[in-house]
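Quick one - inputs below.
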Amino acid sequence: MPDVFTKIALQHYLVVGTIMFGVGLIGFMCRRNLIIMFLCSELMFQGVAIHFVAFGAYWHKLSGQAFVIFILALAAAEAALALAIIVLLFRQKQTVDSQAFRELRG
Amino acid sequence: MNFVIAHSYLIPLLPLLGAIVAGLFGAKVLKGASHWPIWLGVGAAAVMSLTLLVGLLGRQDVVLVGGAEHAAAEAAHAIDSAAGFPLAHVSHWFDWIVAGDDTGAKFNASAGAFIDPLTAVMLSVVCGIGFLITVFAAGYMKGEAGYFRFFAYLGLFIFAMTCLVLGDNLVMLYLGWEGVGVCSYLLVGYYYDKPSAREAAKKAFIVNRVGDFGFALGIFLVFYAFGTISYFGDGPGLVGPAFHKGFIEMALNPSQYVPIGRLWALEWILFCLMLGAFGKSAQFPLYVWLPDAMEGPTPVSALIHAATMVTAGVYMIARLSTLFVPHHAAMVTIAVVGAFTALFAGSIALKQNDLKKVFAYSTVSQLGYMFVAVAVLNPVAAVFHLVTHAFFKALLFLSSGVVMHATGGELDLRKMSGMKKVLPKTNILMLIGCLALAGFPLLAGFWSKDEIVSAASGKSTVLWMVMLLTSLLTAYYTFRLYFRVFQGPELVPHGEHGHGHAHDAEEAHAHADHHHNHEPFIMIAPLAILAIGALFAGIINLPFGAGVSAHSLGHFLSQSPSFAYGYAAAEQTYHGGQEVDAAGFGQASQEALSVTPLVVGGVVALLGIAMAYALHLQNRKKGDQLAVSLAPIGHAMERKYWIDELFQGAIVEPLRAFGKVFLAIDKYVVDGAVAMVAFVPQVTGFGLKLATQRGYLQGYALGMLMGVAVILLWVFA
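Output:
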């Protein structure tokens, strides 16, 4: 059996991270529910975070992990803000469809 | 006197300081006492100028009556000898504009004075008469709004005018030339709330620009030809490698100093400089600004537009006569323009009804005389007439100022008559001025004018006849004015007070004060001094020895290097022929005194006065009838031969149309391009906004994704 199936190596992590990013991206593009779009953007975020951690472990450098700690903290704050905004938007129109808020365009 | 020569910079500086003090502190601090800094500054300059004049007079070599041959030999020797001009001093103040280096052409316009008899005479006229007029002005302008402004401008004018006559190079002359132009503009437009004054100020400035354009070109050409703009370099008559020669000395022998390829410039220099002189000294066709300049306050008309500034052109040609003399065409042009202007302006003056306008045209006419004098190789007579004219014309203008003061700004001689009862002192002063201007025998104007007329008679009969006819006209229009205004039945206009200008409480008060006395001492005293000058100034250059030696002014001026070199140039050009009258350059002349021109001149003056007496005092009805019978001619003269209308139609309107074309180009092409620069991004932005910012969140995300993809492709592919 080739190594790639028996041992979990760097490329596995990268594949998982990339798939997460891709799923998030496609979801962001295709869905119109603001909450789902927000979750998709979080998915892309975490996909990238997995890359950081994987590379950090591979190179035996802690900076990757440290960076991810910041990303998580930031994502938490961002989630609080974004969900609050979505709640406010919902109160305006009783919907979370992104198309409903087109008048916010520049 | 040595003090004055060593500190010659004080002569322009003190009036300038006075002007600065009056200008800065006049409005708030000095107010009604704003004339003091100017009195002190100009007074000090006048004292210094007169000290200089007296000192130089004391130093000149004494001419003995009968020692003519000795003096002539002396004068011929003077140019060769290094110490030939004991009365000439070059005083260097500081380096002003320096460009280039010693290897190539070096331009060096120093600020410095060239002091010689001509300078001393001009300075004394400018500062002496200038001081009298500032004294008069303190009485005349009392209570006017902007009193301090008036005096600050006067001080500035004296500064510029002294720079003009003191300067030792053409750039200093130009500085003064433009400076007096600016002051003239400011003072003509003194009553700037009056539209006519504003127009007149602009006209004076713009017409002068035409002349100054030529003058500037002339200076460029002088530098091009001679490589210097200094009159006499380090000093006249100096030789040797260490000394810089001035261009007047070089002009005596141009082939030695001017590169062959640049000799063509010599004649052009003259015509360019001439244009400047004609503009400043109001000669045809650039005279049109001077009559309009009478919109300024009367002391300004007396000082700037009669006695000093307008003589700057005559001064320049006298100063540079060495350049002018060898070129026949230039001299003929000056003679023709001068004689034509004299006659032309004299004839306009016949039918003017405004006192100041009559004197303005008379000034133009008298300046024509001075130009004729320099053109017939008699610059001494030009300077002589300049001096006497400064006295009697300032007197006449200031006297009409007194009339104006008494009648509340009325100047129309048809509306007044028999003013001698109201203004007894002014009557006498005006009479003296009129007699002097008319050339009444033995008064100042008689000697100076007839010297010019007799000099002209030696050159050309036509010129002589024109000059005599002008003398007749001068006597006639002067006494027409005098008889109409001061003699005859009494008719005193009582117009509104204040010279017909701005009113305020202070002014009303000031006028109430001297309502009972129309001739305050402060105004009459300067006039009395001017009147003495108008009576006796002829004594400085009598054609015969009587108590004082003959041609004393001429002898004094002959020790100015400008006149000595001018004479040498004339001798060189005409090879000592009969064309050159040595006395014209102040050299001792062998010619006997000819009485005929003097008698003819006197008779002509008396004839003119008699005609004016017959038509304007004895039988005014007859005069009016005659005027009616000659209506077409009179109308042409009254409308000044429609020259202003001609200028308006031929020059101003086409220029204005031309300007409108440029206005349209500016508005639609230049401004259009600018507007387009702003309009294009605006439209693009609006289009982009409509095309891209549609509010579809996914669209933005796709855009970002594409952007990242493009960047990645760019970087890695």
